[in-house]
Amino acid sequence: MSGLYIHIPFCKRICAYCDFFKCADLRSMPAVTEAMHLELEEENRFIGDRQLQSIYFGGGTPSLLEPDELQRFIDRTARLFDTSRLKEITVEVNPDDINAEYITVLRHTAVNRISIGIQSFDERLLRLMNRRHTDLQAEEAVRAIQEAGYGNVTADLIFGIDGFADERLESDIERLLGLGVQHISAYHLTIEPDTRFGRMAARGEFRAVDEEQSEHEFRLIHDRLAAAGFEHYEVSNYARAGYRSLHNSSYWTGAEYLGIGPGAHSYNGSVRRWCEQPTSEYVHARKYGEEHLDDTDRYNEFVMTSLRRVEGVGIAEMAERFGAEHAETFTRRARELEGYGVVVEGGRVRIPPEKMLVSDAVISELFEMK
Fold first, then answer.
1. DSSP-H helix ranges across the chain
2. What is the reported pTM?
3. pLDDT greater than 90 at residue 110
């Protein structure tokens, strides 16, 4: 089954860490939204798998759209795809966009999962990140979402920010656990050049935390959430039983997906494609960049995404996809890395969740070179 990603690229304010495609000029939002409907009509055949499992409204800030506009996308999708087995429709929201009226109307749409971008409850850190909401707004937004009847709520946290002690992170985790959400995504800050943090770092006003602190904070989050009953099922994602993200999981298992909107990416099993022009140009004509994946690309991507998940690589699945010789070579090389945290047992190769943060170097040792 496949997935549909709908990218709403608009934001009232640009966060200091954000490297996603976005636009702060909301005046063009109606025109861009209409162009996105046209793109969905014209490009839906890019993926061959017509049976959708999930729809994900990401951004940017999807909660800037009224609920009836979100439902309009869902209705159009149902006319273009087989949605008989559609299980998950997620909308990302900002805490300060959520009020009782908005969430009540949203509850009458087909949206059944809410992703709320909290990032932190620390007021000083929220200001540093240029977030729009306060800590109390975040709590009130989650409560309003739950009171409206949503029982599948995920929240984002950011860690690995220089100058903020463990107590801040521990407090963030405790407050989030107290809200009773079903899923938590904990992302390590990456300082990207074309962001406010990136420009601050270039001037010597901001810096990345060192590797030791990164590992310490990652392990702190893992230990605390695991103790609270969350499954650490992917390097940045934790879920209570039955609440894994179906949409994000499809990315990690190689499923096809269609991306709609400026900056959105698509994948059909052999071609990765992205819409690459600014919103002002997108309204008039779409332009795409493409990457054609060869067998080595697909093999390496399978290794990378699989080892970032708790299940790891199934040797039988690898043999079926890429041949017995690849599977045998991979298993042999994985055994050579057991001293670095790689586990080979039960027909699978995996990296324990608590060691996933530092897994990239190990994973690259298992890649096939061109």
1. 29-43, 67-80, 100-106, 123-128, 135-147, 166-178, 196-202, 211-227, 246-252, 279-282, 295-307, 315-322, 324-335, 360-364
2. 0.96
3. yes
